[in-house]
Design goal:
Two copies of one chain form a homodimer. Chain A has a seven-stranded mixed β-sheet with strand order 5-6-4-3-7-8-9, with helices on both faces. In chain A, helix 1 packs antiparallel against helix 4 and helix 2 crosses helix 3. Chain A has two domains: 67 residues, Winged helix-like DNA-binding domain superfamily/Winged helix DNA-binding domain (Arc Repressor Mutant, subunit A); 113 residues, Rossmann fold, CATH 3.40.50.720. In chain A, 44% of the residues are buried. With 209 residues, the first copy, chain A, is α/β, with parallel strands linked by helices. Chains A and B meet through helix 1, helix 5, strand 9 and helix 8 of A and helix 1, helix 5, strand 9 and helix 8 of B.
């Protein structure tokens, strides 16, 4: 029987991968991983068993091998080209976020509508006029956009992206976008994440409704 | 019987809140909310029922009232002071991210160890020498740190934060931190989020293991 990896497992595997990076070719136990993440070690063993990888009894997993296995399972080596639309503070910060590359995630270009920004470069990536996006998406076969425009422009720009053939929008704006079913939106809900963290972990006992 | 709001519900309520912002004092139905988020409308109704809020039959919810109710339930009006540690690209972008304030999240100051940065201001917030953090955390009663230092410094800085009495670390570095149980770390796993999005939604059928 085959298993599909769920969202939660993917999220944890990425965290295991971060940990394994620090262990090079040493062995690491499920307990060591679990302790760092403050989760149960049966959860770690269950997730890793999904990869059909067996550790060495009483020694643990060979960090390097497990790291490679996670990379191939989650396709870190498959290049995923993306555009950043909105070269504001967040867009520029993400363009400089070198950590993406280790996961096969490549920012091909940025787009903006400000003549002050168009033509300049961020981390070696050029900022283009947004009008060039449909043509460049087509030419470079880019289907993913990281959306970092101001809230007030988010829906208009999303409509434009849909018309341009973009299939995935990683939405960093606080606006919930109205797009057809054929386009997938991932709402990067930083505030929601933060609230989960502070509300449920600090004042859980108080948060009854 | 009382209910605790789970992480997933909090995340969705935050998204509903974003949508309601655009509706002012109009009515909105669970179906409208559900369609925008591409989720089931029974889920929306269930979440909102948790708040003990009843919509008007065949009309829906009064957007403004529901928005206020979410704000009070999730304590958007309670000010949560935080420091940003690491005034690099991401730290600076987050300092400029005005959207945090609507959720009661207030960045009191930034910290760095670079003399080039110390003393300057970002979005009206001053960058201080990291050595001043323990004293300022104590004086301003700040327990939350947004950590945006380079990976290589992340653990050392986390150790310093723990010693300084910081209780919550919102970790934007790709390093999984080793901290005592008394300190809570939220790993802002952008890559994990992104992979969930691309892997599971685009090539789900292929991702068998």
């Amino acid at each position: 029987m085959k298993n599909v990896i769920t969202d939660k497992v993917i999220n944890r595997l990425t965290l295991y991968h971060s940990i394994l990076t620090d262990f090079n070719d040493e062995y690491i136990s499920s307990t060591q991983i679990a302790d760092l993440l403050h989760i149960d070690n049966t959860q770690v063993r269950k997730d890793i068993a999904l990869l059909n990888y067996k550790g060495k009894c009483k020694v643990g997993y060979k960090a390097f091998d497990l790291k490679l296995l996670i990379e191939s399972t989650l396709r870190f080596k498959t290049v995923k080209n993306a555009f950043i639309v909105g070269a504001g503070n967040l867009g520029m910060a993400l363009a400089k976020y070198d950590n993406f590359e280790a996961y096969g995630f490549n920012i091909s270009a940025l787009f903006d509508n400000s003549f002050m920004k168009i033509g300049s470069k961020i981390n070696g990536k050029k900022i283009y006029d947004i009008d060039n996006l449909p043509d460049m998406a087509d030419r470079l076969n880019v289907q993913i956009v990281i959306l970092t425009v101001p809230r007030v422009n988010a829906q208009n720009v999303a409509d434009f992206l849909v018309k341009s053939g973009i299939k995935y929008i990683w939405n960093f704006t606080p606006c919930v976008l109205n797009v057809p079913d054929s386009v997938l939106v991932w709402n990067e809900n930083l505030i929601g994440n933060f609230l989960q963290f502070t509300v449920n972990h600090s004042i859980e006992k108080e948060l009854f409704i």
